[in-house]
Amino acid sequence: MTVMDVNDNVPEWVMVPSPYLAVVSPDAPAGSLVYKLHARDGDEGNNGEVEYFLSDGGEGRFEVDRKNGQVRTTGLPLQQDREYLLTVVAADQLGSRSVPAVLSVVAGSRPPQFSNASFTIALAENTPAGQPFLVTPVVSFQNKPISYSLLINPSSLFSISAETGEISLTRPIDYESDQHRYLLLVRASEGLESMSSAAEVCAFVSITFSN
C-alpha cells in the first residue's frame, strides 16, 4: 500500500523580523539584491516546493525570482528616499497560496529595526544588580554602530549597555516593597538622531521562594 501526501498545507512566511523592511541605494544597478523571501510548506515532496511571486507594487522597479525568492532591482530609476511597497505571495506546486506579505523598500536610509516591537520578560527578584537579563537586538540597514539608551527608566532602576543593548538592574529588587511591573522604552540610534527607533520592554517581577 502506498500512502500519498495530501496537499493540506499552505506556504507560511518565516522571515524575521516583521514587518518586512529593506533598503536599496537609489543608484543601485539592475540585478542588485534587495531582500530574500522565505516561506515553508508542511507538505512532503513536490507538494512542499514553494515558488514566489510579486503580485502588486514596485512600479516595475523590482522583480522576484520565483525559485529562490530573491528580490532584485530591474534597472528602472529609483527615487531618492521613496518607499516602494511590494505585495508578494508564495505558492506550492498544487496552487495553494500563502497569505500575501508586504515588503517595504526605501531607496535610501531608514532607522534600525528592533527584532520585536515589544519585549516581555519575567524578572526574578533575586536577579543581581549589573547582571544582564535581556538583550534588545536590532537590524542595522546602514551597517553602522548602534547606540542604545533608555527613554523611559522607572526610578532609574535599570541600566542599558550603549554598545550591546543588554539591560540590567542598578540595584536589587524586592518583591514586597518594589513594584511588580515596570515599563521601559529602549531607543536604538544609528549615526544621525533621525536614524533611531524605539521598543517597549515590560518587566514583571517574580517572587523567589527560599527553603
CATH class of the largest domain: Mainly Beta
Order of helices and strands: EEEEEEEEEEEEEEEEEE
Give the averaged pLDDT, no decimals.
Answer: 90
Total strands: 18
Uncertain runs with pLDDT below 50, 5 residues or more? 1-5
Distance between the termini: 60 Å
CATH architecture call of the largest domain: Sandwich
Q: Determine the CATH superfamily of the largest domain.
A: Cadherins
Note the main sheet. Answer: 4 strands, mixed
Q: Can you count the helices?
A: 0
Taking all Cα atoms into account, the compactness measure Rg is: 22 Å
**What general outline do the C-alpha atoms trace?**
flat
Portion in beta strands? 35-45%
Measured as a percent range, the helix fraction is under 10%
Number of domains: 2
Category from helices, strands and their pairing: mainly beta
CATH topology of the largest domain: Immunoglobulin-like
Biggest sheet: strand arrangement: 2-9-8-5
Question: Mind explaining what this structure looks like?
Answer:
Helices cover 0% and strands 45% of the residues. By secondary structure, it is an all-beta fold. The chain has 2 domains: 12-107, Cadherins (Immunoglobulin-like), CATH 2.60.40.60; 113-208, Immunoglobulin-like. The protein has a 4-stranded mixed beta sheet with strand order 2-9-8-5, with no helix packed on it. Strands 11-18-17-14 form a 4-stranded mixed beta sheet, with no helix packed on it. The protein is flat, with a radius of gyration of 22 Å. Mean pLDDT is 90; it is low at 1-5. Keywords: Calcium, Cell adhesion, Membrane, Repeat, Transmembrane, Transmembrane helix. One of its GO terms (molecular function) is calcium ion binding.
